[in-house]
Amino acid sequence: MKPLSLRCLRPVIKKEFRQIRRDARSLMFMIFLPAFMLLMFGYALNFDVKHIPLAVVDEDSSRTSRDLVDKFRTTEYFDLKAVLGKTREIDPLMGREAIRAALVIPPQFSEDLLAGRSPSVQVIVDGSNAMSGTTAAGYVGAILQSYSQRITLEALERRGLAGFAVPLSQEVRIWYNPELRSARFLVPGLMAFILMVIVTVSTAFSVVREKERGTMDQIRLSSISPLELILGKVIPYVVISLASAHLVLLLGEILFGVGIRGSYPLLLLAMALFLTGALGQGILISAVTRTQQVAFLIAVLTTLLPTFILSGFVFPIRNMPAAVQAITYLVPGRYFLAALRGIILKGVGFGAVWPQFLLLVGFAALSLGASAARLRLGDEERPRRRRRVR
Amino acid sequence: MPEYAVEVKALTKKFGDFTAVDAVSFAVERGRIFGFLGANGAGKSTTIRMLCGLLDPTSGTASVGGFDIRRQPEKVKRVIGYMSQRFSLYEDLTVVENIRFFGGAYGLTRKALDARLPWLLSMAGLEGRERSLTRTLSVGWKQRLALGCAVLHEPRIVFLDEPTGGVDPASRRRFWELINELSESGVTVFVTTHYLDEAEYCNDIRLIHAGRIVAGGSPQELKTTVIRNPILEVSSDRVIDAMEVLQREPWVLETSIFGTSLHVSVGDEAEGRRLVRERLEGEGIAVLRVDRIMPSLEDVFIHKIEEHGGAAGAGEERP
User: Fold this and answer.
1) CB contact under 8 A, B105 and A10
2) In this complex, do A388 and B84 lie within 8 Å of one another by their Cβ atoms?
3) The total number of structural domains that make up chain A
4) Which of B45, B86, B104 lies closest to A10 in CB terms?
C-alpha cells in the first residue's frame, strides 16, 4: 500500500469543495437544516408539565376544603379550570381534554379532619398520555402531602405540642439542570441526532454518484488510493458539518440558554471524532450500494431510528429491556451523546469521558477502514447494461 | 520495450453461470489502432475492464505494456489511459476544473499540467470555453474532453470503450481524426465499437460474439478472406418479398437487407446473376440492378455470426 500523499489528496478535496459549492441545495441542507430542526424539536419536544388543566369537585364546601383547593390555585403546575358540583361532570370534561386532572373532596372532609379521622380525597388523572399523566399525579401527590403535613403540625400545635418537627424531611436538589427543563437535556441529544443523520445522508451519495457517473473507474485508474479518495471526500464534509454543529450550539445558547460548561476544545474533539465516524458510515453505505436511491434509504434507516430511539436522546437507556440495551452499544450516537451531555451540561473533563472518546475513535476507524477496504476490492458484479448517453 | 502493447492469453470472465468472456486470446502490436467489434453484451467492455485492472479475470493471463495485469496492476495503471462511453467527467465542474482534477489525480505537477492544458483545449476545440460547466457542453465536446483527460498523463496505451456512442456523425469523424493523431504519435489505441463503419479506421480488428473471438485481421483481410463466395447486390422494387423468395432457393447461401437493396451470397457469380433475375421476375418482382460487390465488414460480421450458430441479435440480451 502506498503512503498517503498530499499531492493526491489535494485534488480530491478541491474537487469536493467545488462540487458542494455548486450544489447549493445540498449545502443549505447541511448547514441550515440542523438549525431548523433544533428550532422545531427544541420547542415541540417539550416534556415539561406545567399548567395542567384541573377541575375540582368540592362536595364539602368548607373553609378547610377551600383552603386545600387554594393550594392548587396558587401553583403554576395547575390551572384551575372548573369547580364542579358533581363527580359525574368530570367525565365529559376529561373526554374532550378540557381538563387532565380532577380532585374530588368528599362531603365530610373537614369534619373528619377535625375529628382526627383520616379523610381520603380522590385524584383522577388522564392517563392517555402516560408521560404527562404520571407527572401530574406526582404533582398532586406532592401538594396533598405538604398540605396534610401542615394540618398535622397545626393539630399538634393545638394540643400544645408546638415545635414538634417532622422526623424526616426531604430536600431535593437537582444538579446540572435545576429547573429540569427539557431543552437543556435535549439540545446535546439533538446535536448528535441531527449531525448523524445529515452527515451520513449527505455523504452516502458521494461515492455512489461517482459510480453512477463512471468517474469512479477513472479514479481507480489514477494515482489516487482508496484511502486518499475517502479522506479527500470526508475532509470537506467534516469542515462543513462542524460549521453546522456550531450553529446548533449557538442557537442552543441563545434560544434555550444551554451554554457550554466544560472545555470547548474537548467538545470540538468529540464533535470531530463523531463526525468522522458518521461520514465514514455514509461513505461505507455509498461504497456498497449501486444507486443513489438505495444509498439514501440505507443511510436514513441506519441513522434516523437508531439515533432517535437507541442513543438515549429521548428515552433513557437504563429503562430499556436488557436486550435492547445491548443493541444500544452499537449506536455511536450513544457515546457521542454521553460525551456531549457530560461536557456541555456537567462540565466534566477528559477523565470522565475518555471511554466514550475511545469508542468514537473506534467507530471512525472501523467505518473509514471498511470503506477503504471495500473500495479497494472494487465491484465484482457484472457490468449493468448502460444507458446510452444522448 | 515489449513486442506487443497488449498480449492476451485465454482470458476468461464468468459472472456466476454466465461466461461474459470465453478464453479470448490476441495480441496488439505497438502503435496500432486495434478495434474490438461486437454487439452490446458481446464481452467487449468486460475484456477492456479486465485489461485496465478494473475487473479481475476468472482465468487466463494478459500483459499490458509489458506488465502482468494480475501481478502488476499498479504498473499497468501508469502506462494506460481509459475512457468509457459514459465520458466519466464531472458535469458540475468546469472544463478547466475537470482537467486540473484529472491531472492532479494522475499525479501531474502543476507545471506539467500548465504545459499540457493548451494542447488539450485546442485538441478538444474548447478554447474560450474553459469556464463552461461541463454539463452545458454538447456530446461531441464532452467526448473530446474525456479523451483529453484520459491521455493527460501521456500514456503509451489508450483504451477507449465505445467512445463514440450517441455522438453525431460529424463529431465521430473528428474523434477518429484524433485517434489517428494519437496513433501517429506512437500511442497504441485499443478501441471497442459496435459501429461497423468505424472498424474501417482500424489497423487490426477482432470480432467478438457471445464472449468469443470469431474473426480477426485487417479490414482488407477480413473482407477478402472470410467470405470467398461472391456477393450480389440486388436492387428491386419489393425488397422484403425478394428476400423471402430468394431465401427459399437452395443455391442462395445467405441473404441480408442493406437499406433498399438485398445482399445475396451465391456459389457462382454468372450463374447467380442469371438465377436471381429469373426467380424474382418469375414472382413478378422487378429487378432494377444486380451487381457483384466487395463484401462490407457487416457482411463479414453477419456471415461469421451465422457460422457460429446465432443471429446477429443473439448477443443483445443477456439472460
Assistant:
1) no
2) no
3) 2
4) B104
| Contact across the interface for A389 and B97, Cβ inside 8 Å | no
**C-alpha to C-alpha distances, A159 to A112, A154, A163, A168, nearest whole angstrom:** 17, 9, 11, 21
Instruction: Render pLDDT for A22-49 as a digit per residue (tens, 0 to 9).
Output: 888 888 888 888 888 888 877 776 666 7
Residue A166 falls inside a structural domain = no
| C-alpha cell belonging to residue A76 | 403554576
The model's pLDDT over A365-380, given as tens digits with 9 standing for 90+, comes to 999 889 888 877 655 4
What's the burial of A321, exposed, middle or buried (CB within 10 Å: 0-12/13-18/19+)? exposed
Q: Which uninterrupted H or E stretch holds B33?
A: strand B33-37
Count contacts between A and B (CB, < 8 Å): 101
Instruction: State yes or no: pLDDT of B183 exceeds 90.
Output: yes
Q: Which of A10, A217, A386 sits opposite B54 (nearest CB)?
A: A217
Using the beta-carbon criterion (under 8 Å), do A15 and B97 form an inter-chain contact? yes
Return the closest-CA partner of residue A343 out of A254, A245, A265: A265
CATH number listed for the domain at residues B228-294: 3.30.70.100
Kind and range of the H or E element at A375?
helix A350-377
Whether residue A60 sits in one domain with residue A33: no
Q: In CATH, what number is assigned to the domain containing residue A58?
A: 3.40.1710.10
**Cell numbers given for A114:** 377535625
CA nearest to B78, candidates B177, B6, B156? B156
Cross-chain Cβ contact B105/A386 below 8 Å: no
Q: Is B53 on the interface with A (CB under 8 A)?
A: yes
Tell me which residue range forms the domain holding A310.
Answer: 6-45+181-377
Q: By the CB < 8 Å criterion, does B258 face chain A?
A: no
DSSP-H helix ranges across B24-124: 44-52, 73-79, 95-105, 110-124
Residues A358, A275 share a domain: yes
Task: Determine contact, residues A107/A59, Cβ cutoff 8 Å.
Answer: yes
Task: Look up residue A316 and give its three cell numbers.
Answer: 433513557
B82 vs A18, A23, A217: nearest CB:
A217
Question: Among partner residues B53, B85, B89, which is closest to A386 by beta-carbon distance?
Answer: B85
Q: Is the ipTM of this complex over 0.90?
A: no
Query: Does B49 contact chain A (CB < 8 Å)?
Result: yes
Read off the pLDDT of residues B66-121 as tens digits, 9 standing for 90 and up: 999 999 998 999 999 999 888 889 999 999 999 999 999 998 999 999 999 999 99
Distance from CA of B153 to the nearest CA of A (A): 10
What is the C-alpha separation between A324 and B70, in angstroms, rounded? 47
Spelled out in words, what is the top-level CATH class assigned to the domain B4-218? alpha beta
